[in-house]
């Protein structure tokens, strides 16, 4: 007698195995999973070396930021992520882009460079810190992109609350206050700010690799090591998990969460 499995299409067989086995199917795993930090770094370097190279103006902005304050400079996307987002823009061809969280304009410039091939496209980026917003504006000018980019020194919630729903957004990059992602997302969707094929890219949704563990720890401890920074990171990770769950259950949108960079969530309206 034929086994029931033989009658199932291969895809269903794989799905079944995933449901019934605690071990992930090999195709769901990355070749990097079992490698040590050094080989992960060299794989990243290899990917970097074989991707669109970082334009000189961006390299000098990044290097100056790292020299000024290496810890703060970690707020910027990596050059590889910048190249990915520029590539994304060249495929999606958005006309109206909104970035929440400019910092000094590094990701802004990557995105805006992608927009140069799209006539009439604009990018608005917001930064709540006045001094930093000013630096972002200067960097945008330095990159020759002042005609495309508007830097506003306004908190993201305020900007979203006042955004004209008739001025639809084709692309939103969310990278501001990590604890407020659910609010940003809800404002965009509730106020119907996205165009029909609009996309949201959300950064840091796997926040330092701490988010997925929140999914399995029902009552995550708050005080194990006592370190303030570690507690803060855990708090952010918990909120990020709650955000990811919220989006995953929202029938108004579809999404794919990519375990690349610090975790990237791509969201669009449900079709
Ligand atoms: C991760 S950094 C952005 C990095 C930038 N997108 C890049 O990759 O080059 C987040 C920035 O958001 C700003 N920020 C924090 N809360 C904000 C808010 N409520 N509204 C706007 N900006 C905010 C912070 O001051 C910080 O500069």
TrEMBL record:
CDD domains found in the cross-reference section: AdoMet_MTases (cd02440)
Source superkingdom: Eukaryota
GO BP term, pick one: methylation
PROSITE patterns assigned to the protein according to its UniProt record, in alphabetical order: SAM_OMT_I (PS51682)
Pfam family, one: Methyltransf_3
EC number in record: 2.1.1.6
Top-level class of the enzyme under EC nomenclature: transferase
Keyword Methyltransferase applies: yes
Keywords, sorted A to Z: Catecholamine metabolism, Methyltransferase, S-adenosyl-L-methionine, Transferase
Molecular functions (GO terms): catechol O-methyltransferase activity
Recorded family membership: Belongs to the class I-like SAM-binding methyltransferase superfamily. Cation-dependent O-methyltransferase family.
Record-given protein name: catechol O-methyltransferase
